[in-house]
């Protein structure tokens, strides 16, 4: 290959790489939609769309918190365990009413996030290690509080899990509202700008006088609180608290949604729109395999392929 041809190929590859980063997740969603329209029975029914929307809501809410953590050049492996802790606290405090149960669940998530953030910001523990410890300990605590499945019998929870406004289920409305809040926070607030600056270069952020430790703690508190809300909504939908299984592997689904959506693992950028599309992609992929009678193990393998492809597409051309 001549020097001229090599010079022409390099920009072409860079353009393809940039295009994949920006639009690859939307192409994936479109391909899955077209496949299901053509080959999946009753896919276009209103009931199916409602089901898919309700099921994607917890994934999306958890992925929003994960996007903040990854944007700060971190990660939060404890989100699935926070969902389990949330459902245990709901079962324990539901007797005082749904709002008290929600408050207890969110405070549990905030506490886990505060521990995660403090370990990372003040002790200097790597995010993957700190959140891994809470991933194990959080689910253990959830099982201590509620050792077995418990039915949730409350009219308010039943209405939240199955009710809607003008045909739009409550969990979907809540997820959309949280997307708007997180997007505004990242794009329009000082906290959002500080988060991205810290993710881009933590030493430079310190030299610039940014409150690095405080921002990191808030990031993981937000991630924990969002995971707790997702656990609360999942409990309302299932009408049961099951800390043994609720939130299992949710951290992988959330990471996949964020990375597929174009947020780099190296931090410094958060793509909320891409995260939404990534969550939809994960849910569509899972639903497609289930509807075509493939075992759950195929779903996990498919997610692994998607993660590798997303990380490859999102790789940076150089080190900061």
Automatic annotation (TrEMBL):
Keyword Membrane included in the entry's annotation: yes
Parts of the chain that traverse the membrane: 20-39, 51-70, 90-112, 119-146, 166-186, 215-234, 246-265, 272-290, 296-314
Annotated signal sequence range: none
Protein name listed in UniProt: Sugar ABC transporter permease
Membrane topology summary: Multi-pass membrane protein
Major subcellular site: membrane
Presence of keyword Cell membrane: yes
Keyword annotations: Cell membrane, Membrane, Transmembrane, Transmembrane helix
Compartment(s) of residence: Cell membrane
InterPro entries assigned to the protein according to its UniProt record, in alphabetical order: ABC_transp_permease
Encoding gene, per UniProt annotation: rbsC
């Amino acid at each position: 290959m001549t020097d001229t041809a090599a010079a022409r190929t390099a920009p072409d590859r860079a353009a393809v790489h940039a295009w994949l980063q920006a639009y690859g997740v939307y192409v994936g969603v479109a391909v899955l939609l077209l496949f299901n329209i053509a080959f999946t029975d009753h896919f276009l029914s209103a009931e199916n769309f409602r089901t898919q929307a309700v099921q994607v809501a917890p994934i999306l809410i958890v992925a929003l918190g994960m996007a903040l953590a990854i944007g700060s050049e971190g990660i939060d492996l404890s989100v699935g365990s926070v969902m389990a802790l949330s459902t245990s606290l709901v079962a324990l405090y539901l007797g005082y009413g749904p709002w008290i149960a929600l408050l207890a669940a969110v405070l549990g998530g905030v506490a886990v996030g505060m521990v995660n953030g403090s370990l990372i910001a003040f002790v200097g523990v790597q995010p993957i290690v700190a959140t891994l410890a809470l991933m194990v300990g959080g689910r253990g605590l959830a099982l201590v509080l509620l050792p077995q499945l418990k039915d949730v019998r409350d009219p308010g929870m039943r209405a939240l899990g199955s009710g809607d406004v003008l045909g739009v289920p409550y969990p979907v409305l809540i997820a959309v509202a949280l997307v708007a809040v997180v997007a505004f926070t990242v794009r329009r607030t000082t906290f959002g700008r500080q988060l991205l600056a810290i993710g881009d270069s933590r030493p430079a952020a310190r030299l610039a006088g940014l409150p690095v430790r405080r921002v990191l703690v808030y990031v993981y508190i937000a991630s924990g609180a969002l995971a707790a809300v997702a656990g609360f909504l999942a409990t309302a939908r299932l009408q049961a608290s099951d800390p043994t299984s609720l939130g299992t592997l949710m951290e992988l689904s959330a990471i996949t949604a964020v990375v597929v959506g174009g947020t780099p693992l190296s931090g410094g950028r958060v793509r909320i729109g891409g995260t939404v599309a990534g969550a939809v992609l994960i849910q569509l992929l899972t639903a497609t395999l289930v509807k075509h009678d493939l075992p759950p193990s195929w779903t996990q393998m498919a997610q692994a392929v998607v993660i590798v492809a997303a990380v490859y597409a999102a790789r940076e051309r150089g080190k900061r």
